[in-house]
Amino acid sequence: MRRYLIVDDNRDFAENLAEILRDAGHEVALAGDGAEALALARGTRFDAILTDMRMPLMGGAELVHELRRVDPGAPAMVITAYVGDNDLEAARREGLVAVLQKPVNAAYLVELLEVARRDGLAVVVEDDPRLADNLCEALRSRGFAAVTAASVLETERLGPVQPFCALVDLRVPGGPDGAAMQRLAAKYPALPMIVVTAHHDAWPALPHQGFFHKPFDTASLLAAVERLHGARAPSPVPAP
């Protein structure tokens, strides 16, 4: 049994989804706005949180940001009818398991909720947008969330997240080989890193927990991520 929090001012939608999840044997709490959601999250350890983007008083992006302070290990996903919303980009920088467009396929949504992992946020540093998208999709298929950077400079602009690992291309724009690793090590001390590179003459100067040459076997890389997630220190239970 898992425990979910659904945040939506559309009570009918929230109740319908809650009924589906309860029929599958899970516990579900409902909140009609951000303030109510934060109050619930302060006293309960949720396995996943689903929020609407457009709500009165506090939108989904602000809610996800505040939730990260209350319970940084809780996986979050958003559902929205406004896929081009600027606030949605802000929410992505917080690290999301998924962004779903309304109307949503309920069976797919339930599947995502059931595999979402606590403390499962990874950083992906890759300047090839197609590969970055593929890596993020592969991670999400295993219930992990991801935030991305395409250059050394962008590693400095990552949101206030607490990743459990990073997948880092050894050579990205903005610095010499390994510069992105050095920035991440300074930003997140002791962060485990898995290195990917297309250059056989390159080797990371910093400690790492995996090394993959492109093209690599995605299943093997995901297995390395799984091992790091299993070895992590779990986040504390939210204080009431």
Automatic annotation (TrEMBL):
Residues modified to 4-aspartylphosphate: D52, D169
SUPFAM superfamilies assigned: CheY-like
Residue ranges that the Swiss-Prot or TrEMBL entry lists as coiled coil: none
Record InterPro entries: Bact_response_regulator, CheY-like_superfamily, Sig_transdc_resp-reg_receiver
PROSITE patterns in the record: RESPONSE_REGULATORY (PS50110)
Endpoints of the signal sequence: none
The UniProt record lists the keyword Iron: no
UniProt-listed GO biological process terms: phosphorelay signal transduction system
Keyword Disulfide bond set for record: no
Keywords assigned: Phosphoprotein
Domain Response regulatory: 3-117, 121-229
Protein name: Response regulator receiver protein
